[in-house]
Amino acid sequence: MKDLFIKRFLYYKELGDKTFAQLSDEQLFWQYNEESNSIAIIVNHIAGNMLSRWTNFLTEDGEKDWRNRDAEFVNSFSTKTDVLEFWEKGWNCLLDALDQITNDNIHATIYIRSEAHSILDAVLRQLAHYPYHIGQIIYIAKMLKNDDWKTLSIARNKSAEFNHKMHSKFDSSQENSSSVCFAKSDEVREDYKPE
Known about the structure:
Helices cover about 50% and strands about 5% of the residues. By secondary structure, it is mainly α.
């Protein structure tokens, strides 16, 4: 299960990375208005959250005493390099933590703001939180780039072409992504049938 978590988190990191590659320093710091966050501020919050949640996550509360969440919403960066270095620092902390998850501890209890969570629940909580903010980053970037935006997923009006390519890539004899059923079959795999 750990590998699946890592795969999903890395997918969202890649979306962020591909977005940053399209943006100038100035665009990372652009704000629509005073109440809106720039991409740099959103990165500050995501990475700040990651560092707090995942540093020593097995033995310490995920809301660290040293975290200043409110300060995450104030720009503290000067350059795109500063932003990207902090982004990487947060991701490295998260990925190192995910690597510590085992089948034996995935249901163990950890704490976030003194609230008990299983490790599985804490991971799922962040798998919802980080993509939420990465979606904000992409939305802002698309507005800034407009016609120069290079899509990160299926291009507009290209869904049928993409679907055809995917169907050609995965023939019907392959198993699907479900761990329970076979591809294009309702038959449940032996190891998942009730006893």
